Here is the input.
Amino acid sequence: MKKDVFVALSFLIAFLFVSYAVTVRDVLGIAENPLRPLGEFYLSHAFAHEGLTSHSPEVVTAIVWNYRGFDTLFETFVFFLAIMGALSVLRLTREQGMEVRALEAREPHRHMDTITRTTTKLVVVMIVSISASIALHGHLTPGGGFQAGSAMAVATLLLFAAFSKFTLERQGLTLRHTISAYALGLAIILATVVAPVLLYGGKVLEIDLLPGETGLFNLDVGEYTAVTFGFLTVFLALGVPEWIFKLVLRREMK
Here is the structure.
């Protein structure tokens, strides 16, 4: 125990020393390096390159959506295909689904001790607050819906570990609800990228035509919802115990 504490303190002291040397003392000479031409171009053109702008007041988000907007949209599409693939591989017939739910209902309420569960609740509240802040302020600060949804997925894993999948499902967190929420997030994204075409005769993802920062805000909220419940859908599908799959699908249990 003492050895572990000593190692942890050593790493902490080393981290603080290196951080101070690099940021405050500038031992690497980073502060003296001139801004590169590419950086100058982005800083001067990111907000209104060729007359287009994502209406973001900070340069990181402006660069992401002005130059990589379609790339981000395709990432969401790839994520959608991955989820659909996982659900297709793990799909069950109606009768098999009812049998799985009946077997899962017999599982006891497995969860960790009181200290672990209480700590998990506190940590999850903080993660949810931070992830929501990242998503809702993604049009104002670096970050956005995808990053916020990934952080939120960590909270769901903590809940799975501390309270078990079955306990959460008995509280109403079922696969049907997560798929519905995931579809809602995708609908928000689709409506936002198509709205410029239908309302203003523009192009797909030309969100600068939408009033103010509406486009970016909607995309962040849609991404946040889709990524959060997309991951949660996969976690619920993969969380079925192996013995139940064997019993229902392959009849290998004796």
User: Anything to note?
Assistant: The first helix runs from residue 2 to 24.
